[in-house]
Amino acid sequence: MAGHTNLQEFEAADILCASQECIIGSGGYGVVLVGHKRVFNKAAIKVFSLTGEEGQQAEQQKKFLTEINSLVKASHENIAQVFGWVKWLRAMGIVMQYYKGGNIRQFFMRPLVQIEIALRLRMIAEICGGIAFIHNLSDGKGLVHSNIKPENVLLTEDLHCKLADIASVQFATIVGSTTHNPVNQKENQYNFYYTAPEKLKNPIIEPMIEHDTFSFAVVVHLILTCLLPYPLCETSVLINEICNGKRPDCEPIEKLKQTLDSKDRVIVGSIEKEMIQCWHHNASQRPDMITVREKFDRLLEKQNPSTVLQQVVNAVSQIDSNENPSTNQDQLIPLHHFSTCLGQFQEPTESSNVYDTLHKLSPSTHSEFHYGFMAESQPKAVQISDERRLVETYMKCVENHRYEEADAVKHLLVKMIESQGEVSPEQMVAFADKHRLEGSFMQAMLIYQISLDFYDKYSHLDGSAEGVMGCVGGLHLTGMGLLEDPRWFEFFKNKRIVRDFVIPLMSNARRRILNLSHVSAESRCLCEAWCLHYIECAQNRIGDNRAREETLNLAVVLLRKVFGDDAAKYQVYGHLLNNYGFVCTANSRIGDALTFYLKAVEAYSMAEDLTPEEKKERVERSTKNLQEVASQR
After folding, report:
1. Per-residue model confidence as pLDDT tens digits over 67-98
2. With helix as H, strand as E and coil as C, how does 537-595 read?
3. Which CATH code is given to the segment(s) 8-323?
């Protein structure tokens, strides 16, 4: 990240990728692509997905930019350089320097490549230097990396180390990861080999620099042994063993020492001693990285620079020079065709028909189609091939409260869209958002329904739970749009549609999240809680206080069951408590209302996913509610 005081925004259309070869990494926090642009010739792009409705996405983007601009200060010779950022449909990316040397896992796991000791020492010292630097950023407050592993230590052509993926944990928390590797999903979005035992025991604890120190020690073990830290075994068993004190086997290091001369043996012994101290079970006993860096720097200063340089030459000469083949410029595709849901590029030629079909989901204003409605068992739409007429039929079904027939029409449209080519749920949701914002609420409702079917199709991919949650939020806002019609006769008709059709759609969508097996309990709980929040808000608009209280109670109990007191870290918990207070007030249960408003104030004050301004606003709102109810006693 050297040499930049302002990070640049790039246009996704200007960054070109080879669709079949561009994915160069896939970790717990996102996919990494390699792209080409005249400004930087070649760059790595770390991709994150934006989730939820457009308001949530705008907030995610705002927080994302705040985080990435904080990285401008991270200018250091052992930190990977960041050029800027890029945004496209439901996605954002960090544009970074591309390093031809790959990462140190690839480097040290190559068979038959001999890496000499002075070079290993230099690598360890440089990694240590990068970590020590970020730990002392922000006027000494420090930044925790939280994802140190061999894949996140990159190598230049002359084998200098660059620490990458800084703050990816924060970015993935703000937005979403784009990892589509089932192995990574099972590992709860972090590589447990390199994770401190206290973090394994409690994944949601606050990140600490001592966690990075532990991770660094396990990386050092790989550099010394050229082996993975632990033999393959059942994940839950190994995690339990690490939490109970198991560490990587040091026997290979002892065997290495036996092959070395006395000078190199002393170096390896010093590295091993520091490594063991850094992975101490008690976090408070782990040394700070500045102290560790100083020790390794002193060791490195004793080495002859010419010897280190020759060892670099020897190592590079053993590596296949054809590992980075040139890219055929004719095969390049703009970055904005990458789907974060599918985890792959969608060829422009394949998707053009899909977009044509999507745009036909707007009924013609001059349609001459007449509704001579409807057969007893099946809508006449079954015989209709025109997309717009199908949409008009769907709308008429909903308006006349024939919801099963509307669902049959929806299924026909799903099949029609699928026949036109590959389409992602994100494209569908973006199109639904567009219609809703334009006031085309019936069309938006239909497309959100279709989006949910597409999320079912891709339910095995990361981000599907958040996508379903976003559709529920979109349906909620669509229902609210219908109820804002100023004509009283339309209001009562639309109120029935919201009660009998929209809210059941939202509830069914929430149940889809329960069936997603690859989602962690914590993520599933949060997505469910947001869905229940949207549902109770819709129930409030139609005046169904009894159903609303049942929904609120279900959501609060769910959050408490999964998170305990930590539920207050999430703003949705505060929303639910505040709204519970409103229901109690409406039912003249003043004592209960005071309790819930007080809990809402406490929860908002502890919420970690609110900005200071938002937190202040929410606390003031619940405090005002509390004071108004207290005055009624």
Report:
1. 777 666 677 899 998 888 888 877 888 888 88
2. HHHHHCCCHHHHHHHHHHHHHHHHHHHHHHHHHCHHHHHHHHHHHHHHHHCCCHHHHHH
3. 1.10.510.10
